[in-house]
Amino acid sequence: MAFTQQTLNYTTEYSAAMANAYPYWSYFYDLYASPNSATYKPVRGKSISVQSMTTSGATAVNRNSINGQFTRNFNTDEQILTMSMDREWSTLVDPMDMQEDAIVTVGNITQTFNQFQKLPEQDAYAVSKLAAAATTAGNVDTTALTADNILQKWDTYVAAMVNARVPRDRIRCKMTPDTYKLLKEAAGLTRFVETSEGIRGVDRNIARLDGIVINEVPSDIMQTAFTFTEGWVAADSAQQVNMIFFDPLAVAAPVVYDVSMMTPPTAQSKGKWLYYERFYYDVFVLEQRTSGIYANIASA
Predict the structure, then answer these.
(1) How big is the CA angle at 133 (ends 120 and 161), to the nearest 5 degrees?
(2) Least confident among 48-57, 117-126, 212-221, 269-278
(3) Considering the domain boundaries, does residue 187 fall inside one?
(4) In total, how many domains does the chain have?
(5) What CATH code is carried by the domain that includes residue 138?
(6) What is the rounded CA–CA span in Å between residue 129 and residue 284?
(7) Residue 256 falls within a domain, yes or no?
(8) What residues make up the domain containing 279?
(9) pLDDT band of 53, cuts 50, 70, 90
(10) CA–CA separation, 7 vs 9, rounded Å?
C-alpha cells in the first residue's frame, strides 16, 4: 500500500512546551500551575465535575450506654463547571518571506503570539474572573490606597482571609506597579539594607510581606472586565484592580490544547505554510473556597 503523508498534530509536545513557558511569560503562573488545574480537567467535552464533602462535628461519649442508632453524618456535593474560553489562532507563512527575512519562522511567529497575545490574554481573563468571584463573595474593598493606609489595609485583607481558614503561607498577592510603589513608600514598613557590596548592593524590592509572595502585574491586565472578540481589550465598564489576593488551591485553571498543527505548502493554501492551533481554558473559583479571594478595586 502506498504511503500517504498526513499533517502532524503537535498538541502533546506543544502543551508541554507551554507549561515550561508559563513561569517566564505569565504573571499568574502560580494560578495556572495550581494542583487543582491539573486535577480538574474535562474528561469529555468542556464540563468539569468538582466533588466536595462535608461532615458533622464530634459529640461527647456516653460511657454507660449506646442508643443503637447510627446515621450518616456526611454529605457529598458536586459542582459542574463549564469551560467557556474556546479559542483558536492561525497564520499563513509565505516561503518567500522565510527566504528573504531570517526571523520569519513558524517558531518565532508562534513564540511572539504566545508571549504577547495568548498568555497576557489568559492573565487578563484570570484577573477578571478572580475580581468577579471576590465581588460575589463580598470580599472587595474600594478604599483608595495611600502610603499611609496601605499597610493597615493589607493587614485587614490578610486577617479576613486567615479568619476564613485560608493558610497564610499559601496566599499570593498581585498588585499594580502604582500600588507596589505605595507599598515601598509605606509608613511604618521596616527595611533592612545590605551595604556590604556598596551602593550597587541596595535592593528596595519587596518580594514578600508577612510571608506572602508579591508580584507586580501591569495595570492594563489588572482590570475587572475585558472583551475577547480578538485578543483582549479592557471593557468600557472595567475598573482598576489595585491588588488581589488568592489562594491557588481555591481556584482551578485548566488549559486544554486540542489542536496544534502545521500544514506544508499545498495548492489549496497557494503554496504557503499554514499554522493552526485551538485551545480552551477557564478560571474557576471553587464554591467552598470563595474566602480564598480578596481584592482592592478602584471605585467606578
Answers:
(1) 105
(2) 48-57
(3) yes
(4) 1
(5) 3.90.1690
(6) 7
(7) yes
(8) 8-50+80-191+203-297
(9) confident
(10) 7
